[in-house]
Fold this sequence. Notes:
Layout: E1 2-7, H1 13-23, E2 28-29, E3 42-46, H2 54-65, E4 71-77, E5 101-106, H3 111-122, H4 129-139, H5 143-154, H6 175-186, H7 194-202, E6 206-207, H8 208-215, H9 220-231, E7 236-239, E8 242-244, H10 248-257, H11 260-275, H12 282-291, H13 295-311, H14 315-327, H15 333-347, H16 354-364, H17 371-386, H18 392-405, H19 410-421, H20 430-447, H21 450-466, H22 472-477, H23 486-506, H24 509-526, H25 529-545, H26 552-563, H27 567-584, H28 587-595, H29 607-623, H30 627-644, H31 654-663, H32 667-680, H33 687-703, H34 707-723, H35 727-743, H36 748-765, H37 768-781, H38 801-811, H39 816-823, H40 827-841, H41 846-855
Region (Disordered): 776-798
GO biological process, one term: regulation of DNA-templated transcription
Protein name: Regulatory LuxR family protein
Amino acid sequence: MLLLVEGAAGTGKSRLVGRLAAAAGSARRTAPDGPPAADGPELLVVEDVHRAPADDLARLRALLADPPAHFACVLSYRPEELTAPGLVLGPDTDFPAALTVVRHVLRPLGPAEVHRMAVAALGADRCTPGLAAALHRLSGGVAQTVADLLDLLLAGPVAAGQPLPADLGRLGTPPRLDVLTLRRTAAVPEEHRSVVLAAAVLDEPATSRDLAAVAGLPGPSGADALSAALRAAVLEEHGDGRYGFRSPLAAAAVRRAATGPAREVLHRRAGRLLARRQPVPWERVAVHRRACGDERGWLHAVERAAQQLEDAGEQQRAAGLLESALATGPVPEQARSRLARRLARCAVVGLRSDETLKVLRHIVADPGLPPDVRGEIRLDLGLLLCNQMGDVMEGRDELARAVDDLAGRPVPLARAMSALAMPYGPDASFAENVAWIERAVTVAEESGDPVVQAAVAANRVSVLLNGGDPAAWPLIERLPRDSDLVGCRQQTSRGLCNAADAAVWLGHYDTSRALLAEGVELAARSGAAYAEQTGRGCALVVDWATGRWTGLAERCRAFVDESGDMPYLASDARMVLGLLALARGEWADTLDHLTGPDAADLDTGPVPISATASGALVRLALAHDDIAGAAAEAATAWKRLRAKGIWAWGAELAPWAVEATLRAGDAPTAAAMTDEFAAGLDSRDAPSAEAALEWTRGVLAEHTGGADRAAAHYERSAAAYRALPRPYHAALTTAAAARRTLALGADSGPALAALADCATAFDALGATWDAARTRADLRDHRPSGERRPPGRPRYGDVLSPREEEVAELAAAGMSNREIAATLHLSPRTVEQHVARALQKTGVHSRQQLGRALGAAPG
Length: 858
């Protein structure tokens, strides 16, 4: 049998042959002219047959013409370097009929295989999908080149444990590939070598005609040169009559080795060639014009390329191109103004770029800039600061300055006014937001510009809907989803995602999901990357509210990793992580997610997120029995909410703020807060806040002598939450109603059953802390006939139910005193349970308990 292992340089032939030889077991290794084996199988392995001299090839042909019994031969070779193409043993290659011949071709690796290699070398935590994709693109999937790039990455100065950047251009060409490429280039006769440099300059597969034109080789000389490059294996055929290098790194090696003047000549020819195409690939033309020193032509091509990319909905790429042009050096004033305005426009629909921010700030500070140009750039700088950068206060200051600069320019003026109308920031009241949107609507109508009218219409929906105004719903249907203008579609996608966000805070969860599905899909189609990410963040809040908690923490962490350098975008996910941690009793994590260095600032961040976070912090302080701290947080948060004037955003704050105020002994203020909350919801479409109002009234009644009324309020709140649906909040208020019923001494059967159902609901959600509190209440109120008989049950080495309960809370990070307060036990009893849990699980710390409990059967 003969196995032909065929593969281009670096595809892994030697590794495969080594594995085959190792698997051969007892087979005797032999040589082409060695003596035959007395008995048993023989294996002959010959690597790099393309390098074998003629006499060695002759001996191999002779051996294979009449091979001995039980003989196997493996030949590996590079097909591109065979003396006679396709003939592994030279021109006289022939195989007898009795010989079984199998060819195994090693092809370039696919993206998934490159990703596996990268993970094996770097570790999953350091290998991002972008890094693996860049490795595949630059290497062409050649296994050896991938391995060499990974070695260069590991040798770099990146901190241990940190994800590696996907920008691999800084690594250069690996020396092994450099030598191979330049050796093959040198094998091309000098008079034909310009076609190799032409392919390197074009840097993508090209036709023979284009290669000849860029190389300056007319007529048959171009074809002769290409044939010589193919024979030397420096270029290869890519199909469809196109030729080029196996990988971009190989092309880079040739460009780097060429002289500057030679490169300039070919870049100038390449730019002229591409500029004659229809449509003109302006982005590539810009590369060539810049490389040949044509500054004026380069700037023109950059501007045309950015317009092309904008029209195609690829604002992120357009922004990168413009950012690079403006950051590279002096640009003539008029061109700089045009490019900066276009960059600002692209940046507001893309993702974060610190470099864009730096460029725009520098340009806005130029005293020679005309006021209207400065105002237009300042407008988009303000939007970039508010959204992608998360600096709402500075962003709104820039927007206000832009209004002053843009007098008499209705299109950008309407956009600036409309942006100032967005209600999320704490610096303006809701009444001010409404006044801005009304002014923006008037100016947009006067402008006659359909894109700015779509932008203002989208923001008008956001303003009215967040305020709970029912008039907003019909306006959503009027947004121009099917416009021929990509700008209108981008603004509509943003409006739909923002409307979905408003619907979450109001309590319309099915509507929010429908708006998200439509908005995210339209954002993806129209290139509105920031709106798409906004929608994905909102979806996490919908899942939290509606009890879809399985895997939610992991989804939030992934979103934070993806969007963490954009604080405003990541704030939804961080908030949800904090709320989940609170329900599990992971109180240190709760504080980190809600108030840590990466969290949104409660005084300057989005008001609905600040109000929700403050509600959780008040509840946490109450759990710690820090009444003064809880009351102080409640008062500060309530002041922020009052200043904003959107009371629907108080749904997650009001019950806890009123309870903290009551427990601090200030019943009149708590009553006034409840009345203020109710008045703020009058005539508003805010079902979640209405359910919270009933809850708040229940808290007030419970602490002011109305226990019977409290239970009724809690039951009405629970019913409202179930209808939304909000299962976690329904269980919290159902449990509160049951506790009040038990305190009244009424028939305990239904109340105990309700508590048992709540404990089950909390368990299903993973709300460990709430489940433990509820089971403790059940034990306290269990009828004496149902209590456990005297004597301790024997659980042996298995955790008892109480030990498991205590262990879960200890693993979550709660102290013995906190666990004791939650479960109505003494700290000493808790200490004993923790000690037994550590002993039975065989671990030595509370942190290890969590893993041990997760691995336990059942």
